[in-house]
Structure formats: C-alpha cells, structure tokens
Amino acid sequence: MPPAALSDRELDTYREQADRFIAELDEEFYLHYAGLKESFDLSPIYERHRNLTEVDVVKSVGLSVNGGRRVRELWRFACEGHFGEVTRDHAEKLARLESEIQLTVDGEEIPYRMARPALANEADRTKRQRIDAAAADVLEERMNPIHLDGAQAVQGAARELGYDNYLELYRQALPSSALDELAVQCRALLDSTERLYEDAADRLFRTRVGVSLNEARRWDVARLFRAPEWDKMFPKDRMVPALEATLADLGVDLKSQANVHLDLDERPNKTPRAFCAPIEIPDKVMLVIQPIGGPDDWRALFHEAGHTEHFANTSRDLAMEEKRLGDNAVTEGWAMLLQHLTDEPQWLSRRLDFPRPAEYAVEGATGLLYFVRRYCAKILYEIEFHAADDVSTMPDRYVELLGDALKIEPTAANYLADIDSGFYVSSYLRAWAFEAQLRAFLRERFGTRWFTSRDAGSLLRELWSEGQRLRAEELLKDVTGATLELEAVAERVREVLQG
Ligand SMILES: [Zn+2]
C-alpha cells in the first residue's frame, strides 16, 4: 500500500508512541550518565519503536501535514529519527573508534577524546602543534571514511523521502526565519563585528597565549579559553548553594520542587559534566551534577538548570509536540539566560568574593563573540554542504568560511565532523539572540539586578509554562514587542567590551 495521510486517531497513536520513545531514551541516558547503570542500551529502545521511523511511516506523517504546526513538528521528528536510523551503525563505529584510539605524541599516549583538554593544558606551543596534527591525521584517515559514508546515506535518505537534498527537506520542516533569513542575519553580523572581534581576540591571545591574532594558530584556541587563574574563584562546594540562592531570589525554591530531582551523589561512573534529562515533562526532570569547580563547571550547571526550570515549569496541559518537540531555540535560550549570569559582574559580586569581575566579563564577552561568529560561519557552511551534489568537494569551503570568520584557519579534515544534525546550529544562534534581547528587556523593566527580583521570577515562570508551544521569535515578540535580531548579540558584546 502506498503511503497515505494518517487519520486523527492514527496521529494520536503515533504521538503517544513518540512520547514514550523519547521518555525511554531520556531515562536510559540519565541512568547511564548518572553512573547508575553501566551499559547504555539504546538498541532495544530503537527496536521497540522501529515503526516510528520507517520510510513509509515518515512519508505518511509528511502527507498529514496540512498547515498545522503540531503535525509538522511530528514530521520533523519522524525525519530526524529516520536519518538517525540510517546512520546508527556509523555513529556506533565512530563512538567505538573515538574511545579506543590513542594518539602518540613525543612517545606519550593521549586518548583521542582527551586531545582537546591536552591542547588546553599544554603550555608548549610546538607540542600543541604536534597534538593537533596527530588528531587531524586520525580524523582524516580513520574517521572521515565513516563520516563521508554517513553523510551520503543521509543525502540518499532525503532523496528517498522525495526531496532534492537535505537542505530542501529542511526548508519545508523549518520556517525561513530559522534557515535562509537567519543566514542573511549571520552575514550581516560577521560584517558588523569583524573589527570588534579582531581587536578583542588579539588582546585576549596576547594575554593568554603570548601571540597576536595574526600569529595565532588553531592549536592555540583551546589554550585561549583555558584560564586556570579563574579556577579558584569558582569553588566546587559553592556551586549548588549559589544556584539555590539565585533561584530563591527569583522566588523558586529548588529543594521543594517535587518534580525536579537533583542528583548530587558521587558515583564512580557518573559523568563529571552537568546535564538535564526531562524524562517526563513537567513531572520528572533530572538535574545531574558531580561538582568539580572552575568557570566551565559553573557555566554548565547554570545552563542545565535553565533547561531544568523550563521543563519543570512547563504546563502539563500542552500537547506532546509543544512539550517535547518545538523550537529548541526556546529551551536553549532559557539555558543561556541562566548560564550568562556567571559572567555578569553584579551577580558575581553578589554570589562570590570575586576580584576584578569586569575583567572576567570581558573574557566572557570575547568568548561569546568567538562562538557566535563561529556558528554564523557554520550555518552558512552547512547550508552549502547540504545542497552539494558531492560533499567530498567541501573541505576548501569549510576552511574558507570558518577561517574568514575567525581569522584562524581550521583543520580541513574537520569538514564532516563539524556538522550538527538537523541544523541544530540554528537553535543556538537564535538562542543567543533571544538571551541578549530578553536580558535587555529584563534590565529595562526590573533593573540591572533583575535576577534578584521576585517579579522578574514570576514573569519567567509564566513564560516557562509555555513550554515550546511558541517559537523563540513569537515568544520574544509577545513579551517585548521586538523581532528576533542576531545583531542584539553584537550589542550585548559591545556593551561589555567598549564599556
Ligand atoms: Zn543546552
């Protein structure tokens, strides 16, 4: 039987099963990374729900989209699941290789996954260059054949679903504000912040690495953002109390939220990185952390706490698509709003005995500018990549676009691994804009110390209750009357860098 549009009843069944599928994945993810379960058994979950992502089912859900955004979200979920299915072997092989391969540098073995921290912690520049070269060789020779095969499988799957390529499919799955119109804003931001970036990056490279931006090479970048002198300002024993006190200022009592499960226990196999697993929204949201301290760890905890409060305050009455699917720029925006408190001078002075908070804020703003420019270049690259007839011709374009944006030439070998599935890059870019504009609005309405205002907290809870029913653009418009502008990130950075 050829694929045909589903009845409302069939769509309900599909929706309910998709809901269980995502809950089971989140729970397995939680159990494994919290160190409560040694194995990570995704295959039985995928097996159980295989029908959700079969090509004819994906096409049938696609045929049911008739202007309604909820069904469109279900279709996007189905497509993403299908692409995940055709590349599951690739992902497993790559994960195995990544965890097995050792780089040999100066007779010393470095696990492949530790290459980046090794670069960050290595003071000797020439040794950093050798680590970078060893990692690039492995990527080129061992990983890229698998990455390339996976990228071609995805292109084939997009054609099988009836589209010229992956980009054309996403032009149907996402509004233009998340793709082509956003690309226009990205080009404008790269122009408007070029000089600002060159000056700020040059200053930070000279301070941290002892070279100018002109002399800087890609193996210096991890070193640039690893500033051990700030570590002691962010002690591990004060992380969770600082989060509790911050939320209390906003009128949220973390300990009494029955649906938020704060997992602070130490376990040998627990991942050191904070994460949030929204197993049931809003009824069972896990916030997991094993504090190690330092700025990175504080940032990660506050970011994940932003996701946690968003999901925990989401209204139970929303549809599955409005809770679990929808525009991820919204949840990433809430995460960024809390994350960026940790480089806000007034917050630092309130929560910590922090010397020179303004100097720290300048480093934070320089880092933000680096990453926003990097993601602008990435989305421009991904749009070209996903429309290319032969993706193996793309390394030069990768080097050109990323190199122009950052003034540092990237490894050509990274042209496949540096791609996020489903244009997730768009969610981060719009989340940065959402955070910048919402923060400006909160400061105007509640003062520069908005994060100590109960009224600001009430407004946030009200907005969190909307889950992901609205897109970031719509939510911002409802609250502030403004349209979402990437340039707001540039203004936010200028405010810190130019005082
Ligand atoms: Zn996030």
Word description of this protein:
The termini are far apart. A hairpin with a 2-residue loop joins strand 1 (102-105) and strand 2. The protein contains 22 helices and five strands. It has helices at 8-33, 43-48, 55-64, 69-86, 88-100, 115-121, 125-160, 166-173, 180-192, 194-208, 221-224, 239-249, 295-313, 320-323, 328-339, 345-351, 357-385, 395-406, 424-446, 454-464, 472-480, 487-497, and strands spanning 102-105, 108-111, 260-263, 275-280, 284-288. Helix content is 61%, strand content 5%. The strands form two sheets. A three-stranded mixed sheet has the order 3-5-4. Strands 1-2 form a two-stranded antiparallel ribbon. It has a domain at 171-499: Neurolysin, domain 3 (Orthogonal Bundle), CATH 1.10.1370. With 499 residues, it is mainly α. The protein is globular. Helix 17 (357-385) packs antiparallel against helix 18. The chain binds zinc ion. Residues 303, 307, 332, 335 line the site of zinc ion (ZN).
